[in-house]
Design goal:
By secondary structure, the chain is an alpha/beta fold. It folds into 2 domains: 103 residues, Rossmann fold (3-Layer(aba) Sandwich); 55 residues, Arc Repressor Mutant, subunit A. Helices cover 62% and strands 13% of the residues. It is built from 7 helices and 5 strands. A 5-stranded parallel β-sheet has the order 2-1-3-4-5, with helices on both faces. The radius of gyration is 24 Å and the shape is elongated. The N and C termini lie far apart (51 Å).
């Protein structure tokens, strides 16, 4: 799978050099930005695998742009590529949630391993978040079904098994999820 990359740097020469390096590595540079606002907007539209972001840029700096991209889940991974290595920037980068921090100047052959690992870790995190959402949805469904069973058990003097089977039967007959049936039972009390 070819990685889709957005490069954000306020220096046109740097963007051009990085774009060339990425193309030589077999990646697809899908967008370039000269400031943080443009980088965020490109990511909203393109959903890249990787954003390579400079820290110091006009309007919206790379750290704040990275934080927005990560919080809105607009890219798989964000890696900072910058000339700055102060502790303040490193701490802010960690707080933003970036997957990597590379100090310029950089050689393409040393860039690839860091990029590959960052994208791999980004995908793992996306997968974990997806599984967590699925589990939360399942737990929410179970909670509402349990509540609906309780209502049926009291109001219609059913056993727990009978109440569950009733919800399931309605769900099958109406061709809708059990959670939806249970929610209607709870709402109508």
């Amino acid at each position: 799978m070819i990685l889709r990359v957005v490069i954000a740097d306020d220096e046109p020469i740097t963007r051009m050099d990085l774009s060339e390096i990425f193309r030589e590595m077999g990646y697809d540079v899908v967008g370039e930005a000269s400031d943080g606002f443009d980088a965020v907007e490109l990511c909203r539209n393109l959903k890249p695998d990787l954003v390579l972001m400079d820290i110091k840029m006009p309007l919206l700096d790379g750290l704040n742009a990275s934080k927005m991209i990560i919080n809105e889940e607009l890219a798989t991974s964000v890696v900072l590529l910058t000339a700055y290595s102060s502790n303040e920037f490193i701490e802010r980068a960690k707080e933003a949630g970036v997957m990597g921090y590379i100090v310029k100047p950089v050689d393409g052959k040393y860039l690839m391993p860091s990029i590959e690992v960052a994208v791999c870790k980004g995908r793992e995190i996306q997968e974990i978040k997806s599984k967590m959402k699925t589990m939360k949805d399942q737990l929410d469904a179970r909670k509402i079904i349990e509540k609906a069973k309780g209502i049926l058990m009291v109001k219609q003097e059913m056993t727990e098994e009978e109440a569950y089977n009733e919800i399931r039967k309605i769900s099958m007959n109406k061709r809708c999820p059990m959670k939806q049936v249970a929610s209607a039972i709870v709402t109508n009390g």
